[in-house]
Amino acid sequence: MRTIPLEPQASWVQLRSTQEDWDAMEPAILDTMLVRLSLIRAFEESVLDLAGSGLVHGPAHSSIGQEGGAVGSILPLLPGDQVNGSHRGHHQFLAKALGYVAQHQPLTCTAPFDGAIRETLHGALSEIMGLRTGFCLGRGGSMHLRWAEAGVTGTNAIVGGGVPLAAGAAWADRLAGTHNVSVTYFGDGAVNIGSVLETMNLAAAWKLPLIFFIENNLYAVSTHVNEATAEARLSSRGLAFGIPSWQVDGMDPVATFMAMNEALAVCRAGNGPAVIEATVYRYFHQNGKLPGSAFGYRDKNEEAAWRERDPIEHVGREMIRRQLITSQDISDLRERCRAIMENISSELTIMEGNQRSIRPELWPAASFRDVGIRSDLGEIGNLPILSKDVSSEGKKRKFVDIVADVMNRRMECDPRIVVLGEDVHRLKGGTNGATRDLATRFPDRVFGTPISENAFMGLAGGLAMDGRFRPVVEFMYPDFMWVAADQVFNQVGKARHMFGGAIDVPLVLRTKVAMGTGYGSQHSMDPAGIFATAPGWRIVAPSCPADYVGLMNAALTINDPVLVIEHVDLYQTISPEPHDLDGIIPPGSAALRRTGDKVTVITYLAMVQPVIDIVDELNADVDVIDLRWLDRASLDWDTIGESIRKTNRVLLVEQGARGTSYGGWLADEIQRRLFDWLDSPVMRVTGGEASPSISKVLERAACAGRDDISIALGELLALA
């Protein structure tokens, strides 16, 4: 047997500062370090005090002790660089925000903490307390801090959840041709999560200007990193993906500053991402003002040893040694930081006897609850609208060819649109031909991704939130949404509302229902029912090529995430070519396919034509409504209500499984809104409880079909 040692493709080093490095630091940089460290420490102490008084609703994840990693790494960033972070992200938010403010207002040991500096501290504390004067108007709180203008794209309560979004921000800068870099901060608890590792792979493959900053504070709540992984040198993760990596003492702001400069040089040169692991220590428990030793998972000797390495004390000692500052200056700075935070806290609270409480006028109004879940649709106000019943004319074309035609047309007209997904750039238009010609015509805007839905969905989400591009994502099958559920629902769907209602998320997610193709239980779902219960998403389900054009055009204009559901049964159907590739079908535009007085049949997607065929065969006196828009904000209640008030009976028809049924919630909503006009309960046609199986017989049994529609419709007509 012969063994050959293998070497990793990327470098991996530990970086330590020397006394010479500290001596070489410019006095102004050390001054800035000390001020930012001190302000962040005072800010965090105020948060803990307020939380201890019950004035912070929810968690207060203190970063006290970890400020050196944040300040040292963010100090070298340029104004155009972007950062995001995790649930413990106050220090990163403030380090970047204060750096942004410092462009126009000095942030030094002697400068006053007024103007924009004070406004920044005020806005951050207000947000953590859930007040309307916060950066996200009170909706984000401690764990969701965003200030896009300052380059903070958002901290995140899902461990590892913000990492794919940061890749999207980095990709936006690369597509825009800038030299900006994004930095994503996460901890030792996140480093082994799939979304983080998937994003490392994607960022390396695409050479994104992204720095993965691992804040290793040794504990995920109470579990030590040595218990969680066999390789506790977490920066080693970068080697698996060919990413150069640094390990550094995060309690040493100068060492962190130096490591970040080296990583930035890699990214700005176009050489792809970098990894920095900074070892830091949180002085307190996961949440609150008690140390970890109070809960038994750390001892006081360990905590004392780490406190002796405090980053603020370290910088202060070095500045005194170099005679840049005196101990009295440091005491004065500390007192000024405390004073500004006490002053801001007093503005947000009132004393009622011996009890402090929040000023009532600072709470958001209850009426603000649902504002900003979705766009107000002002962006589509001036677009040409196709009529509800679009007539088509011209040569015969396959449905899937029209899908490709409209995407070609939109990409030709809108340079912001980019397409990504598995194999979308190959196979003459992906696995079904829906992206035909796109890669040839727009080679710099069509991207075949690794098999990593969580990563590329999150990347697209970050790209959409950046605002400069409109990503179109393809999931080969809708079942894959479960793989990417965090990014689909927790991140993309909730972002606009969570960050205050003002952020646009212009993203289109295309996917196809494949019931009847024999692909079995994990490739055959109808996602409409799941997405209809998720806030933030809009949903379209075209049943014919002309509708596909109008609905996709609307989806690519609306500043919300839109799910576009296609169906394999429709792809090869032949229809006249639509004469208009530019008009839209806006939300609230159902189509009345047949008219009658006895029953209202409501359906969508591939069940529309079978319903029409059965109605025509029976010569049934019924309304047939093709919903087209399915989400609760976009339903055409005018058409639905008018029909039900006329017929007094409703049949909902869908193909898929009963458990994830779209009609379940729609039936409930109809009965809530229109109960007085119903002469019988809403009847539903759905598939069975089980997902479709591979067996052709069992697959047919699992899906609703023509016989089910005929029986149900016959029963309702008999009652009429």
From TrEMBL:
Cofactors (names): thiamine diphosphate
One protein family per Pfam: Transketolase_C
Functional summary from the UniProt entry: E1 component of the 2-oxoglutarate dehydrogenase (OGDH) complex which catalyzes the decarboxylation of 2-oxoglutarate, the first step in the conversion of 2-oxoglutarate to succinyl-CoA and CO(2).
Gene Ontology molecular function: oxidoreductase activity, acting on the aldehyde or oxo group of donors, disulfide as acceptor
Residue runs in coiled coils: none
Quaternary structure and interacting proteins, as annotated: Homodimer. Part of the 2-oxoglutarate dehydrogenase (OGDH) complex composed of E1 (2-oxoglutarate dehydrogenase), E2 (dihydrolipoamide succinyltransferase) and E3 (dihydrolipoamide dehydrogenase); the complex contains multiple copies of the three enzymatic components (E1, E2 and E3).
CDD domains hit by this protein: TPP_E1_PDC_ADC_BCADC (cd02000), TPP_PYR_E1-PDHc-beta_like (cd07036)
The Transketolase-like pyrimidine-binding domain, residue ranges: 397-573
Protein name: 2-oxoglutarate dehydrogenase E1 component
Record-linked SMART domains: Transket_pyr
Keyword annotations of the record: Oxidoreductase, Thiamine pyrophosphate
InterPro entries: DH_E1, THDP-binding, Transketo_C/PFOR_II, Transketolase-like_Pyr-bd, Transketolase_C
